[in-house]
Amino acid sequence: MKRILIIEDDPYIAELQKDYFGLHDIEAEICHDGGEGLKQALAGGFDLLILDLQLPGASGFEICKQVREKLDIPVLIVSAKNEEVDKIRGFGLGADDFVTKPFSPSELVARAKAHLARYERLSARDRGSEAKPAESEVIQVRELAIHKAAYRVFVREREVPLTAKEFEVLLFLAEHPNRVFSKEELFERIWGLASNGEIATVTVHISRIREKIEADPSNPQFIGTVWGAGYRFTV
């Protein structure tokens, strides 16, 4: 059974989340204090973190930052803060998803299950990857090399660190070269759900990928923007 940690200072919302996860055979523990929640999260043993932003003891941003530095688990932010700057900051700190209150408990569970499944596939690939990948498992485009099975990316033979979601966005575009995908299409393909206005997710991930793989992110050579349409990977 999967175990998740809910760090939420509103007892009603926390219990509601716990009950819905329980209906889907996911064990949830609750912590109402940010500082204590951070300690519990870093102690390990959880498969996913549900995180509010406005917490006593430690902010959700600080928790996300420290958890992402030490643990490789999905982090979902659930917050009443709906400003795009908060979403951008959350994704920039390594959050996998951002759900705005009020939210549908069923949708939250669906998003969490999708992230759990994706991280499980990633871990399985890591365990089964070989030191020297087969040529069919590598996409080589000029100085960029994407090792599909190992979830590793190299630029000019230097490895660049990408999060799981950044890698999946890059890989998806690279496997469909010269085709334009809208932000809504990318969200649905990568996150597995309708966008529901969470377009900032895609924008932030594309920006972070460019910063890591492009020589000049302001003039990208790999992932270009087709204004009014979406993004295209150019070979």
TrEMBL record:
<keyword id="KW-0597">Phosphoprotein</keyword>
<dbReference type="Pfam" id="PF00486">
    <property type="entry name" value="Trans_reg_C"/>
</dbReference>
<dbReference type="Pfam" id="PF00072">
    <property type="entry name" value="Response_reg"/>
</dbReference>
<keyword id="KW-0238">DNA-binding</keyword>
<dbReference type="InterPro" id="IPR011006">
    <property type="entry name" value="CheY-like_superfamily"/>
</dbReference>
<feature type="domain" description="Response regulatory">
    <location>
        <begin position="3"/>
        <end position="116"/>
    </location>
</feature>
<keyword id="KW-0805">Transcription regulation</keyword>
<dbReference type="InterPro" id="IPR001867">
    <property type="entry name" value="OmpR/PhoB-type_DNA-bd"/>
</dbReference>
<dbReference type="InterPro" id="IPR001789">
    <property type="entry name" value="Sig_transdc_resp-reg_receiver"/>
</dbReference>
<dbReference type="InterPro" id="IPR039420">
    <property type="entry name" value="WalR-like"/>
</dbReference>
<dbReference type="InterPro" id="IPR036388">
    <property type="entry name" value="WH-like_DNA-bd_sf"/>
</dbReference>
<keyword id="KW-0804">Transcription</keyword>
<feature type="DNA-binding region" description="OmpR/PhoB-type">
    <location>
        <begin position="136"/>
        <end position="235"/>
    </location>
</feature>
<dbReference type="GO" id="GO:0032993">
    <property type="term" value="C:protein-DNA complex"/>
</dbReference>
<dbReference type="GO" id="GO:0006355">
    <property type="term" value="P:regulation of DNA-templated transcription"/>
</dbReference>
<dbReference type="GO" id="GO:0005829">
    <property type="term" value="C:cytosol"/>
</dbReference>
<dbReference type="GO" id="GO:0000156">
    <property type="term" value="F:phosphorelay response regulator activity"/>
</dbReference>
<protein>
    <submittedName>
        <fullName>DNA-binding response OmpR family regulator</fullName>
    </submittedName>
</protein>
<feature type="domain" description="OmpR/PhoB-type">
    <location>
        <begin position="136"/>
        <end position="235"/>
    </location>
</feature>
<feature type="modified residue" description="4-aspartylphosphate">
    <location>
        <position position="52"/>
    </location>
</feature>
<keyword id="KW-0902">Two-component regulatory system</keyword>
<dbReference type="GO" id="GO:0000976">
    <property type="term" value="F:transcription cis-regulatory region binding"/>
</dbReference>
<dbReference type="InterPro" id="IPR016032">
    <property type="entry name" value="Sig_transdc_resp-reg_C-effctor"/>
</dbReference>
